[in-house]
Amino acid sequence: MVGRYNNFSGHGVIKILQKQFGFVFVSQKGSHIKLRKIDGEKVITVIIPAHRELAEGTLHNILRQAEVEPESFLRFR
Q1: Residue ranges of the domains in the chain?
Q2: I want to staple 34 with a disulfide (CB 3.0 to 4.6 A). Which of 10, 12, 24, 26 is the partner?
């Protein structure tokens, strides 16, 4: 499991969340980009730093907040 989550950029994560998981761009403040997804009555909002490389813990937290299983996310790498 170590190393599988390395080398993801903020923009790469945003692209996958938008194309594969239905998130849409909401706003940007500095280097942080806000995405949102409406799932029935539930609204899911995540903020992603647009860094060249995200730390493994940061990526895990983004996926947890986005309610996306890491295994599902990694299929689109």
Answers
A1: 10-74
A2: 26
